[in-house]
Give the backbone structure.
Amino acid sequence: MNKKILVFFPDGVGLRNFAFTQFKELGEQRGNQIIYWNNTAFPLQDALGYEEVKIETHKLHPLTSYYCRIRKHIELNVATKKFQDNVYQTYKFPFNYNGLKNTLMTLFIRLLIGLNSSEKGILRIRKRINSLERATEKYQYCKNQLEQIKPYLVFCTTQRATQSISALLAAQDLGIPTLTFVYSWDNVPKAMQLVETDYYCVWSDLMQKEMLQYYPFIKENQLFVTGTPQFEPHYDTSLLESRATFFEQYHLDVDKKYICFSGDDETTSPLDQYYLEDLANAVRSLNSKGHQLGIIYRKCPVDTTSRYDEVLNANKDIIAVIDPLWQASGKNWNEVFPTKADLKLLHNVCAHSELVTNVCSSTVFDFVAHNKPCIYYNYEQPQLKKGIRDIGQNYKYVHFRSMPSQDAVIFCTAKNQLVDQIEAILKGELSNVSEGKKWYQVVAGETPTQASEKIWDAIDRIVDER
């Protein structure tokens, strides 16, 4: 008998992991009927031919987003006190005092944070969020859909979307088991666990430990260590194009070796364009010494700024722009969707670059999977001034403490180091790949090619015990 499994996309971030990989195919091979519960604008039926049920009602309770912010602040305050560590305060965004309405709401938020900054307070606020979302039209709408579909399980593809709360509550109230996937390597310490489900899939033993540390109401038997499908395409050799084909398609110079510059979002690295400029200057210096180098610039998929344009225009002779193959359905970051074609593109950018450079990105793991080194920029730009965030703050975050050693990545701590570091990498004298693989294993688990299979193992186990 086919078991109906409802794969829930509250937003587009899970598409890459659960619509474009072998995830669906593997589930069907196990005798499951997979239906996508689609809260996004991405047309799964039309684009991929997948069976989908669209969620047309998207309205949250007017207070939900405020209470979610309150919850985040309280969880970070509790972690600060519990672990005697002020790093958790750096995960907060500043309060808004612009205008009377924003000021009054900020005062309300700060009052509730002050009254509830404890483990019991977290539970009170979470209960309040659930109460608000149960009162919405969306909750009833989703409940009606679930009553018609009658799935064996709802699998939520990310734990951090407010749009998922009412839908998952509806499933739980109907007695349908719920499972969610923790989306990103840094999400647990950052207090980005918005949903409460019956079970959770986590990337690694490290993430399992974190979940138990930060969320005492979650028990070990609710956690499945599965890895993440995020890196599976790097092991799919069918995606690899020959160097000649890839270079011809993107108008690259076959006589050059390329360094990938992986762009960051504006919040993480507000002066990112100047690191690209530094790389361009380093490449010019190396080319004057006889090297034949170019740069592949791959922007952050959700970056819509024009801040790189001046640098790109001034260095057209050495920088090739290869944009991620993502599609925008709106102006917000969560309305920009990946495509299946981008998995192939990223695979080939990694395969045909000598190394990657960036500010603290998880692309270190994409490139390590291809045995390619990574340089992290870790020095201030002269353009840094009050009101602009220093990128050095990023490396103090909890998820960077998972590095087995400082050699897990190559840190460039001064602009004048860059030429020598790149040259040493090209000569085979400098690499982080060996230690980087150890870090990759700590973060993503020991079996990066089997994540989809392990998630299906978890689903099967939950359904069988139902």
Notes: The chain has three domains: 3-60+136-227+450-464, 64-130, 232-444. The mean pLDDT is 95. Residues 3-60+136-227+450-464 form a domain with the Rossmann fold fold (CATH 3.40.50.2000).
